[in-house]
Amino acid sequence: MSPSTTIPSTNVFEIGNYTTTLIKAEPNVCNRNKNRNNSPPKPVLICSPIEEGVFPVLLFLHGYLLYNSFYSLLLQHIASHGFIVVAPQLYLIAGSDANGEIKTTAEITNWLALGLGQVLPPEVKADLGKLGLAGHSRGGKVAFAFALTKSTSLKFSALIGIDPVDGSDVGKQTPPPVLTYVPHSFDLDGTAVLVVGAGLGEVPRNPLFPPCAPKGVNHKYFYSECCKPAYYCVAKDYGHLDMLDDDTKGIRGRPTYCVCKNGESRGPMRIFVGGILVAFLKAYLEDDESELVAIREGYDEKVPIQLSTFEFQV
After folding, report:
1. CA 86 – CA 83 distance, rounded (Å)
2. pLDDT by residue (tens digit) across 244-279?
3. How many independent structural domains does the chain possess?
4. Quick one: which of 40, 116, 242, 288 could link to 238 by a disulfide (CB 3.0–4.6 Å)?
C-alpha cells in the first residue's frame, strides 16, 4: 500500500480508516546493550497505524498523576486518521514542580529521531518534519512550557492544550509558571495552537475537593496569551477527566471518577477531543484545512457535543 494520502478520509469525529496498534517501549537499563541509547528515556505508549505509509507524529503528555494508558481510546482515535501518537509516562511520583517533566519531554523529543523508527511496524515511517505536541491538564502546562523554551532541534508545528492547568488553586501557579497574564504574550514562533477547555473543570465536585481546572490558571488564560493562529473551544457539560478511557482501574484510576466534576459519560467528550485534534492536526501538519474550516463555519452542526465557546484567530 502506498503512503497515507491514498486512503480516503472520513468524518473526524468517527474512527478513521487506518487499523491501529498499541506499542509499549521501555528504557533499557542494561549498560552492556549496544543499542541502549536508542531506547526511550522513559516508558512510552505508541499508537500507530499498521498500514504502510509515512505519518505525522504527535507527542502526547498525560495529566497529573495519571497513566498514559488511561488515554488509549483517545490515542487510537487520533492514530486511526493517519498519525503516530507517542505518549510517554513522564513520572510515577511527582510534586508541584514540573521542571522535571519539561526536561523529560526534551529527552523524549530527542529520542524520536534516534529510536522511534525502531519500534514502529515494519512498513510504517515517522515524518518528524510534521510534528505536533499535546498535553492534558498539567501535561498541557508542560507542553506549553517546553514549546516556549525552544530547546529542541525539532520543530513543533502544532501545539495543543487539553484543559491545561497552570496551578492547583484559584490564581495560584505552580513552578515553573507559564502564564504571564499578558494577552498574546506567548512567543511560539508562529506555531499553531489549539486550546480545548472543559466547562465543568472549574466547578468543584463537592466541598471536599477544589475544582480540577480552577479559574485564573485554566484554559481561558492559556488562550488569552496565544497569538495567531489559534483556536479555542470549551465543551459545556463535560469535566476535566472526561476524555479518558471509560474504564480506568487501579489506585490511580478509581479517583478519576470522584475527584473532578464529571459529565454524564466520557464517550462524547473523548470523541469530540479526538475529532477536533484530528481536524487541527490535518490543517497544520498536512496542509488540509477542509475539516477544520467545516467545523469553524458550522460547528453547531458538525460537533457532536454542545460548546459554550468557539473562537479562533487566523
Report:
1. 10
2. 999 998 889 999 999 999 999 999 999 999 999 999
3. 1
4. 242
CA distance linking residue 242 with residue 247, whole number of Å: 11
- Which residues sit opposite 56 in a β-bridge? 127
**Angle, alpha carbons 255-257-258 (nearest 5°):** 70
At 45 the three-state DSSP class reads: strand
The predicted-structure confidence for 175-212, as pLDDT tens digits, reads as follows 999 999 999 999 999 999 999 999 999 999 988 888 99
- Contacts of residue 171, defined as CB under 8 A and 6 or more positions apart, other chains included, come to 214, 215, 216, 217
* Angstrom distance (rounded) from CA 132 to CA 128: 9
Reference 41, options 97, 95, 131, 106; nearest CA is: 106
Q: Which residues are catalytic?
A: 137, 163, 240
Average pLDDT over residues 49-75: 97
Closest CA to 161 of 180, 142, 185: 142
Cell digits for 261?
A: 466534576
Residue numbers of the domain that contains 295:
4-313
What is the share, in percent, of the chain residues with pLDDT greater than 70?
A: 93
Sign of CA pseudo-dihedral 102, 132, 242, 246: negative
pTM (2 d.p.): 0.94
Return the C-alpha cell found at 69: 494508558
* DSSP 8-state symbol, 209: B
d(Cα 72, Cα 68) in Å, to the nearest integer?
Answer: 7
Are the C-beta atoms of 230 and 278 separated by less than 8 Å?
no
Provide the 8-state DSSP code for 37.
G
Neighbour count for residue 255 (Cβ, 10 Å)? 15
The enclosing domain of 306 has a CATH number of: 3.40.50.1820
